[in-house]
Amino acid sequence: MRLLRRHGGALLGVIAFAVVSLVLTGMVAGTLSNTTPGNTVRLSAEFRDATGVAVGDDVRMAGVKVGRVVGTELRGDLAVVTFDIDERQPVTQATLAGIDYLNLMGQRYITLEPGAPREDAADLSEGDTIPVAQTRGALDLTAMFNAFKPLFETLRPADVNELAENIVAVLQGQGGTLQSLTRQTAELTTTIAERDETIGRVLDNLTMVSETANSHRTEIVGLIKELGTLTKGLAEDREVIAASLDDISDLSTTGSELLLATADPIRRDVHSLRQLADYLAGQDELVGKTLAHTPKQFSTYIRTLGYGSHLNVYVCRLYLQAVGTPKVDSTPSTKHSERCK
Q1: Which of 110, 170, 192, 259 has the most CB atoms lying inside 10 A of its own CB?
Q2: Is pLDDT above 80 for 326?
């Protein structure tokens, strides 16, 4: 008792320090253990990609921690994440699950969202799984930055260095560089101002085009629908069209073979026709006389058919003469009939 009276304040300080230390230790232990207080229910969710999700990560609803991840495994082509969640939290068959970034270090957490309300959406029970159709993976920053790779490849290091040097020179207050930049900016604005009328006409034309398209939107919509119908019809008849193309190909092959087979005869016929044309051109006087007497000959021939269905011909004089040969007279007698006189 004498010791307590003499050092009571120090003893009370030690006791208070011990109590605070125990409380803080318990809080740290609870944080490190990452446990969910109260009764929990164990559920699972299927993801196409669960990269970065680890045991102990948070499960949150509306930003509030309601559970933690207890396991991950691969089932076929899907990643299945198992987690414990406070049984008081409503998780139904319409609930959506996603993976989000917790911080810039890459740590992730599972987020649960109510989803669209459904009358048949019952509450999930122990061991149930949220299907992959109702989940989404986390944004892959690596894939996103890799998408800029073609752009970065087009940049030449020399151009980037020159741009950086110009920016540094401007920031360092070099008058010549700043003056050049100002002059170029002034020239650009002056050029735009000089083209104000042209730019105005372009905008007016664009406005006119927009108004015209808007006034004919019904026709445009109809045209698009007709194109859709045409495309659908072509798709439905693709087999017939393919067969027709095959037939056309066969016809082309047959025609090519026919031309190859008849090329020489056609060439000879054309050569013969050319010779005939040259001959007729050289006998233009004879051809002219023949054509001039042809109507008379036809008239005489038609008169011979006027006595019945037979042909009455009186051979008064007959002679033959080939081109380049003497005439051969074959008169049947020296006495002609009355019709020939």
Answers
A1: 110
A2: no
